[in-house]
Amino acid sequence: MKYDIQSLSVIYALLETDGIGPQRIINLLKHFSSPTDLLHAKINNISEIEGFNEILANRIIRNLEKIIFYQDEFEKQQEAINKHNIKLLHYWDDDYPKNLRNIYYPPIFLYLKGELKKIDEISVAIVGTRKPSSYGKNVAREFSMEISRNHVTVISGMARGIDSIAHRGALENNGRTIAVVGSGLDVIYPPENDKLFNQIVENGCVISEFKLGTQPDASNFPQRNRIISGLSKGVLIIETKIIGGAMQTANHALDQGREVYAVPGDIHNIYSEGTNYLIQQGNAELVLSAKDILREMKIDISTESTERRKKIFEGLSLFEQNIIDKLTDKQMQIDQIAEQTKLSVPECLVNLLNLEFKGYIRQLPGKYFEVIY
Fold first, then answer.
1. CATH 2.30.110.10 fits 306-371, yes or no
2. Cα separation of 328 and 293, whole Å?
3. Which of 69, 79, 244, 277 has the most other CB atoms within 10 Å of its CB?
């Protein structure tokens, strides 16, 4: 559903009203054909709705009396987001993420830089401590690379430590990744992640529910964590204190009916207390490899037959089909492909380039290639 500026300004004003959060706004607007109808509502029209009373109704009406101020502020925000090439989605928008729409307390507004795609509905969130051990760093990279290799989107919070490693692991595979941040999209935090921010925009998107100019205050991050889990099908926890932010994300995931996975850690390491506790309490499934998660999510990681691949990849030359058949689900270097297909390296490069243009394969670092299913 598309709303005009005045309707969006009413919603913006509601968000700025004390005691009126996303769930109340969604419930309130169910009782009106348009948000602008609220501009003519009486106290009893609102107070009689479940979850409201005269005090809340009075606050709403008094705030909406300043709609000209809120519309002016919203239009300035709109100019700023256009300047920064940012997209604004609202809860009733057709493009609003399906996974997120059904959680409790969904964000009303989402600011996006980059692109959300239908394939991002199949995704895994990877979160953990900002101070990972060498073990944690290796595991985060290993899991994120394997998950993205199987064309599953990696979601995280772009924080220092595990989050950043998870994003980079996906990017190394030219995989898709989504970052959910706790500030406005014009405030990159941590600041040293400015390059990572831009890489994520090119291979996925960065998302925030906070308007432009919002600083990364500590109170924003627990709120942000429910979106990380809400966007995903499952959440993987890698190293966290028992009261760490990743534990908040795990709790949100459990409340939202998402699967929670945890990598066991050193019992003497304070940053493994959280993951080990989740496993011990039966709130997270112990996983030893990304394949455990992919199988649990019923993602096919087996080698597909030549017959099925031929149905997926249409209009191929004999040479291109030969390359596709040899690659299957493996990653291969150009020399290996030439040897397997009995083609010269120059012939391979020409055909690989054609397949890349058609969107059937992609090149990875080190001159490796893999098929995109």
1. no
2. 21
3. 244
Backbone angles phi, psi at 82, to 5 degrees: -65, -40
Backbone angles phi, psi at 261, to 5 degrees: -125, 150
Per-10-residue mean pLDDT of the chain, 373 residues long, equals 91 95 95 95 95 96 96 95 95 94 94 94 96 96 93 96 97 93 97 97 96 95 97 97 95 96 95 96 95 84 45 75 79 88 91 86 81 69
277-288 burial, b at 16+ Cβ within 10 Å, e below that, comes to: bbbeeebbbebe
CATH number of this structure's domain 1-82: 1.10.150
3-state secondary structure of 235: strand
Beta bridge partners of 332: 369
Phi and psi torsions of 205, nearest 5°: -160, 160
Quote the tokens at residue 28. Answer: 């309130």
CATH code of domain 114-296: 3.40.50.450
Cβ-Cβ contacts under 8 Å for 131 (sequence gap 6 or more): 161, 271
| Sheet architecture: strand order including 332-333 | 332-333, 368-371, 361-364
